[in-house]
Amino acid sequence: MKNKLFFATLISYLGIYITMPVLSAISTKAHMLPNQIGIMISLGAFAMLIFAPIWGKLSDKWGRKTVIVTGLLGMAIGFVFYTIFFKLAISSEKAVNFLIYGLMLVRFIMGMFMTTAPTAANAYMADISTVENRAKDMASLGAATGLAMVLGPIIGGLLSSSGNLFNPFYVTSIMLAVFGILLIFWLPKGNKSNSSENLSQKNTVKTNKKFFTVSLFGWLLVGCSIMFIVVGLQLLTSLYIKDVLVQTVAQSAKTASLLFVVQGVMLMLTQVVQINILNWHAKKMMLVGVPILVAGLLLLTAQSSFALIIVSYVLIGIGAGLGISSLSAGASLTVSQEHQGSVAGAVAMTQGIAGIVSPLFGTSLFQINIRLPFYVFALFCCFSYIVFIFLTKTKKEQHS
Predict the structure, then answer these.
(1) Which domain holds residue 274?
(2) Any idea what DSSP says for residue 206?
(3) What is residue 216's predicted lDDT score, i.e. its pLDDT?
(4) 162 located within any domain
(5) Domains identified in the chain, total number
(6) Whether the predicted model's global pTM rises above the 0.90 cut
């Protein structure tokens, strides 16, 4: 069962990352202006922010399987319409407002489904995991995210190397649809596995029945600061590399792609080490991960050596790997079993918030000083880290 949840998460995120290498190029061919492309991406993130908690609650009500399958099939259909609108826009000789707004609307609708499968998969994993293994099992889903970050751009680049920018969209639509249908038969019927009822009775930590607590707020705040850095780097890296290493736009794009692969590989390897060797509890992962993440971010701003920039992304990948995994596990342990879907949705909200705020805030600061956004992100992360320690220190450690 856990392997199936791993693949559900992997396929869902691959649906996002496979098309990333060609999205800007294909949007430009569709006569979209840079600010329109930014609005389109932000609308998708805004939809993720709004609907992540809704899908979490629906997974509590309808069942995890139903929501996972709905998310994958919803994304598949969304990519079909995305492709249609892009083709119509590219075939026109000039920008057509109807098609531009249509692309924005489709991206928003796709955003509704982007966090659906991962949210329900996290809740499902919490259902079938013991308290002692919660951090390790959640790390496996984090490894799926890291693997998607590595494989997605590579697959997308290979598919588009033939010159057809639509190939990543075709493959993504088919992949999501096929795995969505397969999971109808692979996942057990119902909200939880047969053994989860016993697991919840034996292992669920006794917590306040209220969903939102100060401890949960601490986890979400520090998680949000981590996602600010991860999302912000996706947008700012190529711009920063271009200025620091004095590269052309094309060269900086290739360098940024390499750095993202390094970051993704380290994120994934960190999850593997956590699962098979460290097996740390959630809070320890966060306590260790955030300082490593901040150290990598500050090293990035302090050096113009390419070798040390790679080292900084290694540290960022390690810190983000520990932090992202611990966020899902730690947040799930602050609530009772009936709220696992809701808390998974709340965790997914951090990605939506970062997707909206980080690009807008980061680019504005970048125009003032190219290092300023990294300093601000690091400062916010340190502040969140202190708040996290304060809000969780009075809670009994929820691990064996």
Answers:
(1) 2-392
(2) -
(3) 86
(4) yes
(5) 1
(6) no
